[in-house]
Amino acid sequence: MNQPWIEGCVDSYASCGAACRGGADRLELCANLAIGGTTPSAALFRQVRRDFTVKVNVLIRPRFGDFLYTEEELEEMCEEIRMFRDLGANGVVIGALTAQGDLDEARMRRMMDCAGSMEVTLHRAFDMTRDPFAALETAIGLGCRTILTSGQASSAAAGAPLLGALFQKAAGRIDLMAGGGVKRQNIEDIFRATGIRVFHTSGRSGPVDSGMIYRKETVSMGLPSLSEYELWRTDEEAFRACAQIVHSLPAK
Length: 252
Hints:
The chain has eight helices and ten strands. It is an alpha/beta fold and about 250 residues long.
């Protein structure tokens, strides 16, 4: 555990290719990263599995917003977990909270039972818990392999003090994967401050301009703050720079 490792956070076939060529050790396959990520389609997963050899963990998240799920949403997530397990996913990335801000152990256990032998990562729902040290122990008790976290801050760099404390408390029982604003400029600083060698990044360097020539600028199909004519994708060179830094970190 805690060996130098980088996971690419990707939500398109193009981004998967860029991350894989850039040196990703694993992909977290999502949809809709502009809103924090939701469950990707089975069709995209099949394409990625067909064309790339890197391990794929799949985000299971039915919607934007909080992690307080209804029974129907939990049923949906369990069915998706079973589907991706049958399709050959390496793992799933899940999380559920109680209304009081604790990790929802019962709902997590139901999803993990559906995952079977797949790896399970607890996603950044962890960063919304009221007591991160209690959530850490719950995740370990459940058998999660990894916790993806920014240290309950706006970025992993800002959350480094808590990340370091969590890393010490985990004591090798689970991988802490630093995610949120991870860039080539801060990976070594985060490592030195925390001891964490496992990183998660989208490797994006900025929006890609749409190929559309005719543009209806007065109409928005989603969040008004987002342009319909900007595409956010993993940049191969930006990801490679991150991967080279991570892979050069000293092994534990």
